Amino acid sequence: MSTSSRFAVAVHILTLLEHEGGRPVTSEYIAGSVNTNPGFIRRLVTMLAREGLVTARLGARGGVLLARPATQIRLADVYHAVESGDLFALHHSAPNPKCPVGKHIQRALRDVLGSAERALESKLRGVTVADMVESVTARAR
Fold it and tell me: What kind of fold does domain 6-84+127-140 have according to CATH?
C-alpha cells in the first residue's frame, strides 16, 4: 500500500517558488527540480491555484507565482489543497462482529488514528512555506 506524494511535491513547488524570489517559474523548470514530468506539476499547480496558493502568469515570461506571502501559507493549507480523504483508512469490510477483537477494533483504531490526525494537523498549521525555505537554505550552507 503506497501513499500519495502530492503533498510532498506541492510543498517542493511552493518552496521553489518562494526561493525564486517572485520570478514566474514554468512547469518545466519545476518538473526539473522535482524530477518528474511537467503534466504532474501542472495538475498540482491547478489544485494549488484552486485554493488561492498560487497564480499563473500567461505569456512569454509567464509561469507560476505564489498568490500570497510564504509566511501566510501553512503546510496544513497545502495538505488540504492536494490531498483528499482520511489520512488513515480502516479496512473496507466490517470485521466479524462475533469476534471479541473484530467487534471493537475499528472503534479503538478510530480513537488512536483520530488523535494522530489531529496531531499532524496541528504540526502542519505551525509550519509555513517561509519556514521550509529557511530550512532548505540552512541545509544548503
Answer: Arc Repressor Mutant, subunit A (1.10.10)
